[in-house]
Each structure stands twice: as structure tokens, then as C-alpha cells.
Design brief:
The complex is a heterodimer of chains A (about 120) and B (about 425). By secondary structure, chain A is α/β, with parallel strands linked by helices. Chain A has helices spanning about 10-25, 35-45, 60-70, 90-100, 110-120; strands at about 5-10, 30, 50-55, 80-85, 100-105. Chain A has one domain: Rossmann fold (3-Layer(aba) Sandwich). The two termini of chain B are about 65 Å apart. The chains are: A alpha/beta (about 120), B mainly alpha (about 425). The interface of A and B includes residues 12, 96, 106 and 108 of A.
Amino acid sequence: MSKTILVVDDSATMVMSLKASLEIAGFTVETAGDGVQAISKLKSGIKPDLILTDINMPNMGGIDFIRNARALPGMRFTPILALTTESQQAKRDEAKKLGATGWLVKPVGGADLIKVIKQVLPGA
Amino acid sequence: MPITNQHQVVIDANLAQARMLRRTMGWINLLGSLAITILVYLTHDWLNLGLQTAGSNAALIHALIFGGAVLGTNFIAGLVFFRFSFRVNSALCQTWDRVIQELRQGQQQAQGDKEARALTVEQDQAIEQQLGETVAETEASTLNVIERTSQLNADAAHLLDYLKKSTGNAKSMEEDISGRLEDITEIALLVQELPTRIQADMEAIEKVLHDIRQLGGLTSSIKQISKKTRLLALNAAIEAARAGEAGRGFAVVAGEVQSLADHATETADTIEDGLNRALQNVERNLQFTLLEGSQEQLEQASKAVESIHRLRDNYEDVRQFYKVLFSVITHHNTSLATQISDILGLLQYQDVTGQRLERIRTTLNHRASVLINADDDPTQLPNQLRAVFDDYLRSEANHARSQTSQAAEDPNEPRIELF
């Protein structure tokens, strides 16, 4: 059975390109336009094997989303990768402190992205 | 000349006037006092002479001289004061004219600046709108590219599925053809053995013919027996005639025996003719089959076997060709999927560029707001504009440059970092 990845990004192009790229690699992809939508999906019963989230988003940004997602039952050890244009160390540290698994600066090539995902998601 | 310099000119002129007045007053007082003293001293004798000739009062004469000297001194001082005042006022008037002119120029400049700011705001807003439309258009185009790329991938996947199914079908066909090939090979072997079988059949027929020829001997024996029987019947008829009345019955039997012998001879002739005709027919047909038909059929059978072997070889070639074809297509399809994945990764640049354009739009909006509110206190405008640009630079610094830029990756801020 294929692994499920939740993609959270306010950019339609990012969501579409990541979805297509991950589906080619054999993953099942769920999408959300911001942190609020993503939390709502997680609460509705979707249990992703990995979460790929942007940091700068309207309504609820990536940092707050990581904080709220980690507080949900069953989400404590789900890998969360931040995929963003943000590069400042302070935000990286904050994300790390809140339980993010990694930090990827856009743009990330298809092969590199799959490689990182397979690193943090054994058996994928 | 700036208005502040005009102000300095006025101050300098006033100061010069004050200094000149002070100096002039000093000199005139000094010179006047000296002149009066000398005049009083020199005119002492003139007083006595005046008194003697005119009989005038000495005090009156002194007062007139002293008053005339003071009047003359004051007159000269007044002339000097007037000249200086005239020059200073003239300079002041010229200065004020220039000040008024510069104030008018300043007002015109201020009006020009205001219009320039309004125009800058208008242009900034137009550029900001264009940037917004550009972001929207690139986003739409990128989504279109993603959709088409995904479709391309789906088509490639369908092609691969089709090939996989075709491989399954080909395998089934292969098994079927293999079964058929075994049948055909058996037939080929059968055909190959056909000449031997025909030869065996011909030998069997020869044997039959030999047996039929043997039967020809039997008809001769029957005719020989009939001949002897006829002689026997004739002797019996003679003996019956010799016996007279007693041999009448025996004569009838002898006649019947002769009749049977004749009939047997006829039958033997008929059988012999029939056997000869059949033998001739079989021999003629068999000879034709052996000499012409069999040879041709054997050649055809040999060719058929050869064709079957060639067909099998061709089938193996086709099978190998399709195997290689499938392998090549699968390889290229995998490569295509990788390329498509990389293209989709590259399309993330649209988001990166879009965000940078959004930051420029935000900065333009902010600057337009500052320029619109600059009429309240224009002196703060430079600082406010500097602050807007500093905000923009700070925001840019917090976001990574794309990998296509020449800047080397900062080792402290890697693009991919796992915690």
C-alpha cells in the first residue's frame, strides 16, 4: 500500500507540482491551502505518513501549524518537513524546537525531494 | 542663489552698515572736534579784529563760529549717513527682490515635487498592478504546464500499462504458438516420414500385385482341371453310350459334368481377363505415381518442412525483437518519468519568483503610501523612503536566493537540512 503525504502550501503551483511529482514516485497525496485547512484534515481522520508544509501562509503559517499538528493525538512522531523560501536561522531553530523533521529551501529538485522523503520515511 | 544665502547677505549688509557708521561717526567726531579746536584757536585774533572793526560782541562771534563748525560737521556726517543708508537699502531691496523671486521658484519647485510624487505614486501603483498580473499570468501558465506535464506522465504510464498488458498477451500467445509449433513440428516430422511410408505402401501394393499375379496361375490350373474334366466327361459319355440303356442316367451326369467344365473354363477366362485388366490398371497407375507424382510430392513435403523450420526461426526473431522493444520502451519511460519529476521540481521557481514579486509589490504599496502622506511633513520623506527600502532589503535577506543565482550557498544555511 502506498504511503500518504499531506502537502500544505498556499501556492497552487507548488501544490500541483508537488502532487504530480510525488504521485509519479508512487505516493498518495492529500493537499491543503493553509495551516487551518491542514489541521482540519488531520482532525477529520486523515493520517498521513509524512507532512510537507510551507512556512509563510495566510490564516495559519507553517510554524503555528507544526505546533498545532504536534499537539494532535497520533501526530507526535509523524515526520514534518518544512519546504519554504525562508532561510533565516531563527525560524529554522523555532521549527526544530517545535518538532519539525527537516528544513528544505525552495526550489528543491524532484529527485532530491524524493531522496529526502525516503530518508525520513523508511520503506517508502 | 539659495534663500538662506540671501538672508546672510542682508545680515552682512547690516553689519557692514553698522561698522561703517561706527567708524565714520568716530572719525567725523574726532575730525570735527579737532577742526573746531583749531578753528577756535586760529580764529582768536579774528575775534579781536571783528570786535575792533565791526564792534560786535565776542560771545556772539564765538557762538557763530562754534555753531557753524558743528553745523558743517553734522552736514558732512548727514551726507555720509545718507550715502551709506542709500547703498544699504538699495542692497536690501535687491536682496528682497531675489528672495521673492526664489520664493516663487521654490513654490513652483514644491508644486513640481508634489506633482512628481503624485505621478510616482500613480506609476508605482501601475507597476504594482502589472506585477500582480504578471504573477497571476505566470501562475496560470505554470499550472497549465503542470497539467500538461501530468498528462504526459499519465500518457506514458498508460503506454507502459498497455505494454505490460501486451506482454501478458504476448506471453499467452507465445505459449499458444509454442503449442502450435509443437503440432506443426509433429506434422513436419510426419511429412518428413511420408516418403518412407509411401515406399512401404508401394512395397505392400507390389506384394498385392505379386499375389494377384499368383492368382493368374490359379486360373490356368482351373482351366487345366476343366480340360481334364471335359475329357473325363467325354470318356464317361462314351462309356455310357456303350452301356446302352443302363448308362443313360450316367450319360446325363457326363453331359452335366462337361457343361460344368465348360462353364469353369469360361469363368476362369473371365477371372483371368479381370485380373489382367486390374493388374494392368494398378501397374499403370502405380508406375505414374512412382515416377512422377511421388517425386513431386516428396519435394513439396521437403519444402514444407523447411518452411516450418524457417517459420519457427522467424517467430523466435520476432519474439526477441519485441522483448528488446519492451525493455527499451520501459527504460525510456522510466527516464521520462524522472525528467517529468525534475521539470515539476523546476516549476517551483514560479512560486519563488512570485513571492519575490509580491515583496516588491508590497514595497511599492508602502512607498506609495509614504509619498501620498509626504505633504504633511516633507522633511521626513527621505527618512521614510530609506526605511521603506531597508524593510525591503531585510525581507529579501530573510529569503533564500534561487540556485540559479551566482551566489554560493551559505554553509550556515544549507538548502536541505534534516534535524
